[in-house]
Each structure stands twice: as structure tokens, then as C-alpha cells.
């Protein structure tokens, strides 16, 4: 009888032992386990960073800030409301700083330290920055044939309409509260400067009010008043041309049309009456001196007349020889279309011709006026003191009326520019402040970036630790399971060996 041996060989899958498997449930368990710890640490560290930032913000001499904006017509091209070049450095000009120091009752010796500590930076919107960056990319990528078009595209500039003012007051020795007051006073002083410079003309009547007409002969005083009224009338007409809503001042109750009528009334009823009385009665302080004045005025006006004629002739020649640009539009029809484009230069020539003609006409009228007065002066003998006293009283009344009228014009124009024409041209978007809440808010804003960075690192650590702990736990469980399986397999092999021995004996 033959014997048969059965050998059972158990093979462990080595690849299975090397595999590491982490279940989602294990990771979630670890995330829940360490969530409270992570949240507590994150809150503590975030609070510490914010606290340190607020502490240094409130205790250190950090600069104060303010933001202003300009929205008047032409600012996008770097122009002031009157067409001159815009200069944002005027915000920290000595005139503005001196006015602010005076308002804050501070010594003028701080002017230079304040000026050195002031920095102004333009704020460029994101869309404008992207547009300029795109144009630059197109220019760099353009081939030789497209270079001209790309260069034309690059003919784009951006002028900031918002500006950030930063006042570093360390050198000045001011406290933070004083620095805030100075900066805000500067912003208010610039507002007054802006409206005074580009709105109503505060110094409009200064030339007349500062001049003593009594030092001149009566006819010369009349000429002074006449010139001032013409100037005042041009000023009102210029504002009225832009006033499409027929503005009525809430302060004076006048419209610019009312002011024009008042000027015209003084010219025709008061000034012309005094002038005619002077001519008819030949009232003068010094007849010979007045005759010399008339002769000088006629000679000077004749020279001016000659210059005006030459200027008008030059403009007429340029106007007659100027040709507008034409564009020919080709079509399928027999006749092509020609279109004349509007030209800014052509419009300027028209305005120059009108101005030159007006100046020449006014000069001619003045020459005739002074010639008539000179002829009357030579024919008529001088009047007595009674008529001179009457002229002096009339001139005094006229002076009072003109002064009142100039005040009305200035106040009405001030109201118009401040509340209509330039109401939104200059705005203080963010004033400087030393309030505790604002300072704390500023400190928190400064701490946002570092807090965000550190919190992101903590989150990564939290996720990494949770994943690592889940991996260790799953690995340990797997190793224990494999160990148990190996132990069970070893026990089964030991049990089978005695049975084989028994079979062999039998």
C-alpha cells in the first residue's frame, strides 16, 4: 500500500502588505477630533496679530491719510476748469499749508516740515491699468506692417482723478490729533483756493475798489468806471452762456440775466448821463491836462487800431485759404460721396475772426468818442465849481452803485460755481481722522494679510496632522489585522502537521 504526503504551503501576498489605504471616514474622524484645537489656536493667533497691529497703529506715529477726487471737465486730460495744466502738487503748496496752519492756530515755522512730510500719489483704476497694459502688449507683438497702428493705439495717457494724501508728521513734532487737523484744514483750504481760482473771481472788484478815482480828473474817472463795467459785463455774459438752467442765487435772489440788466442800467442811465454832463459843460479839474490826456488816448487807440486791422487781415487770409478735410466714400453707384469733416482748427479760426472784428469795432468807437470829447473841450470854456461839485456827488453815487453791483456779481457767481457748475468738481472722499474706531479699523485692515497668511498655514497644518493621524491609525489597524491573520495561519499549519504524522504512522 503506497503512502501519499500532502504538503500545504501558505503564501503571503507581499504587495498586499505594502499597500496603504486611508479611508475618508478615518480622515473625517480626525478632522472632528482636532477641529476644536485648530479653531482655538486660530482665534488666539489671529487675535494676537490684530492686537499687535492695533497697538502699534495707535501708539506709533503712523502717517495720517486722506483721499480727494476731481471730476471737473478736462481733468481726464490733465487740465484745470479754465484750461490750464492741472498740478496736483498745489494741494501741498505753501499758500495752502499756511492757510491750514493759520486755521489750526499753529506757528508758520511748521510750514516746511509739513510740506516735506506730505506725499501725494495718484490712484489709477484697475480697468485703466489693464487697458494700458493691453495696449503695451499689442505694441510689443505688432509686426512691422502693423507698427503704425499699434503706435497710434499707444497714444493713450491716463491722468488720475483721485489722489491719496499721506502726511508723515514725525519731523514736524505734531501729535496725531494735530496732524489730522492740519491735513483736514489743508483740504478745506484747497477747496477755497479751487473755487476762488476757477470759480467766482473774488478779486474781481479789487482793482476798482483799491483805486482812488478822486485822484484823477472827472473824465478819467468816468473812463475808469466805463472800463470796469465793460469788464464786469463780459464776465457775467461768460457765465450766463454756460448757465442753461437760468440759475437764481438763493443768497442774492438774482439771475445772471438780472445782473446784465443792472449793468446795462448803470451804463446807460448813470454813466452816460454823467459823461454827457461833463462834455456839455466841460467840467474839468485841469483843462490843459485833460486835453493832453485825450490826445494821448487818441494816439494810443490809433496804434491799437492799426494792430487790430493787421490781426484781422491775417485771420481773414488764414480763414479764406483754409480747407476742411474731406473724405471720399466709394460705392457701387456712379457718383461717389464726398463728406466734409468738422475741424477744430476751422472753428478756432472763426472765433478768432469774430474776436478780432469786435476788438477793431470797439477801438474805432473809442477813437471817435475821444475825438468828439477833445473837440468839445477845445470849443467850450471850463465850468464853475458848482457843476464840479455836482459831478463829484454823482461820481460818488456811481462808485457806490458799482461796488454794490460787483458784490452782487461775486456772491451770485460764488453761489453758482459752488452749488451748480463746480459743485462736484472737488470732493474729499476720505478725510483724515484720529477717531479710536477708525484707528482700530485701520489697524485691523493692516493685519488682514498677515492673519490670512498665518491662518492658511494653520489650516494646512490642521489638515496635514489630521491626515497623518488617520494614516497612522489605519496603518496600525492594518498591521494588527495582518499580524492576526499571520498568527491564525501559523496556528492552522501547526494543527495540520500532527495529523500528517498520525496518518503516516497508520
Structure notes:
The protein has about 500 residues and is of the alpha+beta class. Among the domains are: about 210-285 and about 380-420, no CATH class; about 285-380, Helix Hairpins. Helices cover about 65% and strands about 5% of the residues. The protein contains 14 helices and 6 strands. It has helices at about 15-20, 25-60, 95-105, 110-115, 125-140, 145-155, 175-200, 205-210, 220-240, 255-280, 285-320, 345-380, 385-420, 435-505; strands at about 65-70, 120-125, 160-165, 325-330, 335-340, 425-430. The strands form 2 sheets. It has a 4-stranded antiparallel beta sheet with strand order 2-3-1-6. A two-stranded antiparallel sheet has the order 4-5. Helix 2 (about 25-60) runs antiparallel to helix 14 (about 435-505).
Any chance you could write out the topology, listing elements then pairs?
Layout: H1 14-18, H2 24-59, E1 64-70, H3 94-103, H4 111-117, E2 118-123, H5 126-141, H6 147-153, E3 162-167, H7 176-198, H8 206-209, H9 218-242, H10 256-281, H11 287-321, E4 326-329, E5 337-340, H12 344-379, H13 385-421, E6 426-430, H14 436-505
Antiparallel strand pairs: 1-3, 1-6, 2-3, 4-5
Helix pairs in contact: 2-14, 3-4, 3-7, 9-10, 9-13, 10-13, 11-12
Provide a short characterization of the protein structure.
With 506 residues, the protein is of the alpha+beta class.
Number of separate helices: 14
Number of strands: 6
Question: What helical percentage do the residues reach?
Answer: 55-70%
Q: Output mean pLDDT.
A: 76
- Unreliable spans are 3-14, 327-342
Question: Based on helices, strands and strand pairing, what is the structural class?
Answer: alpha+beta
Main sheet summary = 4 strands, antiparallel
Terminal residue distance: 11 Å
Q: What percent strand? A: 5-15%
Strand order of the largest sheet: 2-3-1-6
Report the principal-axis shape.
elongated
Instruction: Note the run of SSEs as H and E.
Output: HHEHHEHHEHHHHHEEHHEH
Amino acid at each position: 500500500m503506497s503512502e501519499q504526503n500532502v504538503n500545504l504551503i501558505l503564501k503571503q501576498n507581499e504587495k498586499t502588505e505594502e499597500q496603504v489605504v486611508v479611508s475618508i471616514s478615518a480622515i473625517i474622524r480626525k478632522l472632528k477630533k482636532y477641529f476644536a484645537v485648530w479653531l482655538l489656536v486660530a482665534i488666539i493667533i489671529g487675535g494676537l496679530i490684530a492686537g499687535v497691529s492695533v497697538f502699534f497703529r495707535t501708539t506709533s506715529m503712523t502717517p495720517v491719510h486722506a483721499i480727494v477726487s476731481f471730476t471737473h471737465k478736462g481733468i481726464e486730460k490733465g487740465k484745470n476748469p479754465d484750461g490750464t495744466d492741472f498740478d496736483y502738487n498745489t494741494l501741498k503748496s505753501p499758500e495752502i499749508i499756511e492757510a491750514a496752519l493759520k486755521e489750526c492756530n499753529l506757528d508758520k515755522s511748521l510750514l516746511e516740515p509739513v510740506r516735506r512730510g506730505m506725499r501725494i500719489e495718484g490712484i489709477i483704476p484697475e480697468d485703466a491699468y489693464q487697458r494700458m497694459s493691453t495696449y503695451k502688449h499689442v505694441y510689443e507683438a505688432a509686426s512691422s506692417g502693423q507698427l503704425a497702428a499699434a503706435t497710434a493705439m499707444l497714444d493713450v495717457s491716463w491722468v488720475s482723478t483721485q489722489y491719496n494724501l499721506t502726511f508723515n508728521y514725525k519731523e514736524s513734532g505734531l501729535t496725531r490729533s494735530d496732524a489730522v487737523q492740519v491735513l483736514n484744514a489743508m483740504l478745506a483750504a484747497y477747496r477755497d483756493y479751487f473755487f476762488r481760482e476757477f470759480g467766482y473771481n473774488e478779486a474781481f472788484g479789487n482793482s476798482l475798489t483799491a483805486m482812488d478815482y478822486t485822484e484823477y480828473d472827472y473824465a478819467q474817472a468816468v473812463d475808469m468806471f466805463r472800463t470796469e463795467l465793460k469788464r464786469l459785463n463780459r464776465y457775467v455774459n461768460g457765465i450766463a452762456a454756460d448757465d442753461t438752467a437760468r440759475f437764481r442765487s438763493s443768497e442774492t435772489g438774482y439771475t445772471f440775466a438780472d445782473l446784465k440788466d443792472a449793468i446795462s442800467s448803470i451804463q446807460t442811465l448813470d454813466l452816460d448821463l454823467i459823461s454827457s454832463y461833463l462834455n456839455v459843460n466841460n467840467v474839468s479839474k485841469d483843462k490843459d491836462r485833460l486835453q493832453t490826456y485825450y490826445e494821448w488816448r487818441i494816439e494810443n487807440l490809433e496804434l491799437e487800431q492799426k494792430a487790430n486791422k493787421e490781426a484781422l487781415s491775417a485771420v481773414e487770409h488764414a480763414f479764406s485759404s483754409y480747407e476742411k478735410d474731406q473724405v471720399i466714400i466709394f460705392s457701387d453707384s456712379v457718383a461717389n460721396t464726398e463728406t466734409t469733416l468738422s475741424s477744430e482748427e476751422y472753428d478756432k479760426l472763426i472765433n478768432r475772426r469774430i474776436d478780432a472784428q469786435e476788438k477793431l469795432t470797439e477801438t474805432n468807437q473809442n477813437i471817435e468818442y475821444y475825438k468828439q470829447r477833445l473837440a468839445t473841450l477845445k470849443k467850450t470854456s471850463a465850468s464853475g465849481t458848482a457843476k464840479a461839485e455836482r459831478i463829484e456827488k454823482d461820481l460818488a453815487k456811481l462808485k457806490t452803485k458799482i461796488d454794490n453791483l460787483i458784490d452782487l456779481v461775486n456772491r451770485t457767481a460764488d453761489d453758482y460755481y459752488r452749488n451748480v457748475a463746480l459743485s462736484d468738481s472737488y470732493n474729499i472722499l476720505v478725510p483724515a481722522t484720529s477717531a479710536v474706531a477708525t484707528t482700530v479699523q485701520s489697524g485691523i485692515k493692516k493685519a488682514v494679510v498677515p492673519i490670512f497668511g498665518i491662518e492658511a498655514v494653520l489650516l494646512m497644518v490642521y489638515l496635514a496632522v489630521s491626515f497623518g493621524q488617520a494614516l497612522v491609525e489605519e496603518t496600525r489597524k492594518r498591521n494588527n489585522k495582518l499580524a492576526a491573520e499571520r498568527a491564525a495561519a501559523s496556528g492552522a499549519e501547526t494543527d495540520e502537521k500532527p495529523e500528517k504524522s498520525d496518518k503516516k504512522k497508520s
